[in-house]
Specification:
about 325 residues, alpha/beta, five-stranded parallel sheet, 5 strands, about 10% strand
Length: about 325
């Protein structure tokens, strides 16, 4: 069966299914759905966990062995398989066999990128629909982001003025993970006080050494030495680079669009306001970057963002911080 993220908690209260598929490209919501399944499974006694990543190195025979090696003495387990491309590839036959008769002592959790239409027509997916639960996770639409942010703040007991909410929405639009992190930071800072515009601005200034938004600004401004120091601090602090990555990718694409608009004679300030960029500092950095960086540089930077994403998710031998340093050098070079 297929269900929505908001319905998952009630569904889990009714009992566990042998298999869950959580799919989507929104890391925060996917992670939260997975955590709900993990907690329900843990509460039900599925204590041990085994994790596989379906990259080119995965031996699907080893996965099949784990499902067939159950005995009367085996512990109840959770087996998690990450599908970064949304495709099973060589694992399709293994999953088809497992899903025909799922073991009673295993909860299978598939964590996937968004599935394409072709994959949902496969036999394994039809078996999963019959035996388990699919939770497709969709991004929050731009026109619903403000409401999502308000609801998220309320769930943490935070009270924000309309102005404070507007500032956060402008900075965090499209980046739910960063939004969640920023609300956590404000919660620690404000206690039970109402958060206004000044508090939001002050919070950013106070945490500037560790703030991903500040790093994005430094990267786009081409200030490689300072960006390098910030990358080192964020790495030491254990910051999740995915939080800043979507902001960085969004702004790189915006710079590309601005270059195109400017070449057609459109006023850069008017273009940025039309695209919802009202903060003077951000608008200035984006406009200057559009004049300083070439299209090949920007396309290469977006490719490096993809490498950062893969590295942050554990699918690369290098760390995401390594690629961020490469990116800082690329964006500091003049075209």
């Amino acid at each position: 069966m297929k269900t929505q993220p908001g319905q998952l908690p009630q569904l889990l209260k009714k009992g566990l299914s042998p298999v869950y598929l959580i799919s989507g490209d929104e890391p925060l919501l996917v992670q939260e759905c997975c955590d709900q399944v993990r907690k329900a499974a843990l509460d039900a006694g599925f204590v041990d966990r085994l994790t596989f990543h379906a990259d080119n190195q995965l031996d699907w025979n080893a996965v099949a062995d784990e499902f067939s090696a159950m005995s009367l003495f085996a512990e109840r387990r959770r087996i998690e398989i990450h599908l970064p491309t949304g495709k099973l590839g060589d694992g399709r036959a293994v999953l088809e066999r497992v899903l025909q008769e799922p073991p009673e002592d295993i909860i299978l959790l598939l964590i996937s990128a968004r599935l394409d239409a072709a994959e949902t027509r496969r036999k394994w997916y039809k078996e999963l629909q019959n035996k388990g639960v699919h939770v497709p996770v969709w991004p929050v639409d731009a026109d619903k982001f403000l409401g999502w942010l308000q609801q998220r703040a309320s769930s943490r007991g935070l009270s924000l003025t309309r102005g404070a909410l507007a500032i956060l929405a402008e900075r965090l639009e499209g980046n739910l993970l960063a939004a969640s992190q920023e609300l956590d930071r404000l919660s620690l800072l404000s206690g039970t006080d109402t958060i206004d515009e000044k508090t939001v601005e002050q919070a950013v200034q106070d945490s500037s050494r560790f703030n991903g938004f500040e790093l994005v600004t430094e990267l786009l401004a081409g200030r490689a030495p300072h960006a390098g120091k910030m990358i080192g601090v964020l790495q030491q602090e254990g910051e999740n680079p995915l939080g800043l990555l979507s902001v960085l990718t969004r702004d790189l694409n915006l710079i590309l669009e601005l270059r195109g608009a400017a070449s057609q004679g459109e006023n850069p300030s008017a273009f940025l306001k039309k695209r919802g960029v009202f903060q003077p500092q951000r608008a200035r950095v984006i406009e200057q970057a559009s004049r300083r960086l070439s299209r090949p540089q920007l396309h290469q930077a977006i490719e490096i963002c993809s490498q950062i994403d893969r590295a942050a998710k554990g699918f690369d031998s290098l760390t995401p911080w390594h690629y961020l340093r490469d990116l800082s050098l690329l964006l500091s070079a003049r075209s």
